[in-house]
Input
Amino acid sequence: MKKAIYPGSFDPPTLGHLDIIRRSAKMVDELVVGVLHNSAKNSLFSTDERVSMIKEVTKEFPNVTVTSFDGLLVNYMKEIDATLIIRGLRAVTDFEYELQIAQTNRVEYPEVETIFLTTSLEYSYLSSTIVKEFASYGGDISKFVPPEFIDRIYAKYQIERNGL
Ligand code: ADP
Output
């Protein structure tokens, strides 16, 4: 039984995240999307909001569940009995950090394997930071996030959607 976790901030979840969820769910028996609850980090959406947003757009995937966690990822994985970590790689700039984290996780939890999925070409530029930047200036984010999130993201910036 292959149980994997796809951890991240997902602030907000993007089409790039959803693509990784869709692809990795096919590779494992059970996929847990783990929203990192980091009280020190200033996030646009609360942990609960991020969990429910991901739940909304993954409800058609029978083997995907969404939870939040805090503290060390490997400790949470031991708790839920997961041994695989899914991460997405966009550019070389992601690589060094991801490699370091993956190796550290193996020291802490030797049974752990990290699976890196390369981003789909159309989302290679996409990050939650870019979405927030665009939205804060009233830019069109319809190609970046699921349609049901658009108004909620603009609302965080007190921006009305003017026929976008
Ligand atoms: P973190 O703060 O852990 O990097 P993110 O929410 O930014 O959290 O990203 C979670 C994971 O999703 C990371 O592995 C990241 O590389 C991956 N990811 C983010 N955006 C994309 C994208 N457009 N295509 C593929 N993977 C992505």
User: Anything to note?
Assistant: The chain has a mean pLDDT of 94.
